């Protein structure tokens, strides 16, 4: 069988153009439009080895940016309690790497407010994870490291923090950190992840499990359908037509996942969107 020709590599001019797009868009994505971060991370990881497919993905991203040139993020009054949703996608990146996602926001003590994000994690985990549970623990570790100095800053601003609630949708990762599962067949988990277990025992973080359809970090770890993006964009950017409470946002997320609503009287926000992730 004749060897298959490699796809055309990006020229130096195209690579420079991609670098300019990633550099100029990153600040805007971090500050305002969280929905761009996953795509930007994908594009940035291909800067040195991009192909024609990378160029098509880059144009797809530019089309998305042109469709929504004036994104807004709304911050609602809250008790200033730092809250973190953490998620991971196992073996979804090249070279057997996994992805970590995190959604950090300031909420209320009762946990019933989904606010605009103050930080978002959308990164490839550098270590090769041996299991999905290890990937989830790795994502929790990355999010906790980001949250630790934020806890100190909030305290110095006059908002002392209780144990920061950190949500994960992996019961094994939750059990390992909280000590309800004995680690026997998971010895491959890197020792540095136990920094998180130590901090949880000190009362700095409260790791707890919740279903995946209530985890707001899931958006930043996977490629979703156009319908998923159209449905969830209002909630992530806290647009005026998005639900005002966490339960309403969960209903919105269930709709995006194709699940039936648990509240027949609750209206759902919809907006138009453009799928910018390469398939």
What does this molecule look like?
- With 279 residues, the chain is an alpha/beta fold.
- It folds into 3 domains: 12-67, no CATH class; 81-214, Nucleotidyltransferase, domain 5 (2-Layer Sandwich), CATH 3.30.420.10; 224-279, no CATH class.
- The chain has helices at residues 12-31, 37-44, 52-67, 132-156, 171-178, 194-201, 226-236, 246-256; strands spanning 81-93, 97-107, 117-125, 164-168, 205-209.
- Helix 4 (132-156) packs across helix 5 (171-178).
What pattern of helices and strands is seen along the backbone?
A: HHHEEEHEHHEHH
CATH topology of the largest domain: Nucleotidyltransferase, domain 5
Radius of gyration: 20 Å
| Cα shape | globular
Please describe the structure with a list of short key phrases separated by commas or semicolons:
279 residues, alpha/beta, Nucleotidyltransferase, domain 5, five-stranded mixed beta sheet, 8 helices
């Amino acid at each position: 069988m004749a060897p298959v020709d490699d796809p055309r590599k990006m020229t130096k001019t195209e690579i420079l153009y991609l670098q300019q797009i990633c550099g100029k868009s990153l600040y805007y994505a971090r500050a305002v439009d969280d929905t761009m971060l996953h795509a930007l991370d994908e594009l940035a990881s291909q800067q040195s080895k991009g192909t024609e497919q990378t160029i098509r993905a880059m144009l797809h991203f530019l089309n998305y940016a042109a469709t929504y040139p004036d994104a807004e993020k709304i911050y609602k009054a809250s008790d200033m309690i730092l809250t973190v949703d953490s998620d991971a996608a196992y073996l979804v990146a090249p070279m057997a790497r996994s992805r970590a996602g995190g959604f950090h926001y300031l909420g209320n003590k009762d946990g019933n407010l989904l606010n605009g994000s103050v930080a978002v994690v959308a990164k490839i985990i550098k270590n090769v994870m041996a299991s999905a549970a290890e990937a989830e623990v790795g994502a929790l570790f990355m999010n906790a490291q980001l949250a630790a100095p934020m806890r100190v800053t909030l305290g110095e601003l006059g908002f002392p923090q209780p144990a920061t609630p950190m949500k994960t949708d992996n019961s094994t990762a939750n059990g390992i950190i909280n000590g309800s599962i004995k680690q026997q067949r998971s010895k491959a988990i890197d020792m540095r992840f136990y920094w998180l277990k130590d901090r949880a025992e000190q009362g700095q973080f409260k790791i707890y499990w919740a279903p995946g359809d209530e985890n707001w970090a899931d958006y930043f770890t996977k490629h979703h359908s156009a319908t998923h993006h159209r449905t969830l964009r209002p909630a992530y950017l806290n647009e005026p037509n998005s639900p005002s409470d966490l339960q309403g946002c969960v209903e919105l997320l269930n709709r995006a996942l194709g699940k039936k609503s648990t509240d027949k009287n609750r209206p759902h926000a919809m907006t138009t969107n453009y799928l910018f992730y390469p398939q």
